[in-house]
Design brief:
Helix 6 crosses helix 7. The strands form 2 sheets. Strands 1-2-3-5-7-10 form a 6-stranded mixed beta sheet, sandwiched between helices. Strands 4-6-8-9 form a 4-stranded mixed beta sheet. It is globular, with a radius of gyration of 16 Å. Strand 2, helix 1 and strand 3 form a beta-alpha-beta unit. The protein is built from 9 helices and 10 strands. With 208 residues, it is α/β, with parallel strands linked by helices.
Length: 208
């Protein structure tokens, strides 16, 4: 299947989705999210796939929502791509999906980090930098991220990250429990795929 803003490949029993707008630091457009969700649904229906990895091309995982059409929308214009799905659409898809491992490379900001919180396992590269920037823009975090973040790292730390919008480096993210592992940048994706393969080798009926 041909996609415009993601890449999809299979290694063994692992499906790998790469967000592929590196010139925009993989900012999440409506089209990108639709393609991402469509590919996950396709692999969920494929018995040869046991687990899924999501990562980003270039020096970022995802720099948040693509706001390139924001001014047009405010002025009554039209988006060039379909709207992003609502929060519940993504959360429900992840809940019903085969295990998803997010391999966070480089910058993960705003939607770029809230997107991964409902997923099953998170790993990061040494150069990963994470920020819940919503407070700086006067926005409300999406994807029930305040709930998921508090479950992962505790209420106190979650409130600090949400209320300051500060950047968290990879080692601190691991110490907090926001990610499970930190790997060298050049081997991070291989490590994530290896972990996903270990998960995928379990009986298929146990993975949904």
């Amino acid at each position: 299947m041909g996609y415009e803003q993601i890449l999809a490949e299979v290694q063994g029993r692992v499906g790998i989705v790469t967000l592929n707008q590196p010139d925009k630091l993989n900012a999440m457009s409506g089209l990108m999210q639709r393609e991402l969700s469509q590919q996950i649904e396709t692999w969920n229906a494929d018995d040869s796939i046991g687990a899924i990895v999501i990562t980003g091309a270039g020096r970022a995982f995802c720099a948040g929502a693509d706001i390139s059409n924001f001014e047009d929308v405010i002025q009554g214009g039209h988006r060039n791509s379909p709207s992003r799905s609502n929060d519940q659409d993504w959360i429900q898809l992840v809940k019903e999906s085969k295990p998803i491992i997010c391999a966070v490379n480089g910058v993960a900001v705003g939607l770029g980090i809230t997107l991964v919180l409902p997923c099953d396992i998170r790993v990061a590269s040494e150069d990963a930098r994470i920020s819940f920037r919503f407070v700086r823009l006067g926005l409300t975090p999406e994807y029930a991220s305040t709930h998921y973040l508090a479950n992962l790292i505790g209420m106190g730390k979650a409130m600090e990250l949400m209320l300051t919008g500060k950047f968290v480096e990879a080692d601190e993210a691991k110490e907090l429990g926001l990610v499970n592992h930190v790997y060298p940048t050049e081997t991070m994706l291989d490590e994530a795929v290896s972990l996903a393969q270990e998960v995928a080798d379990s009986p298929t009926w146990q993975l949904l």
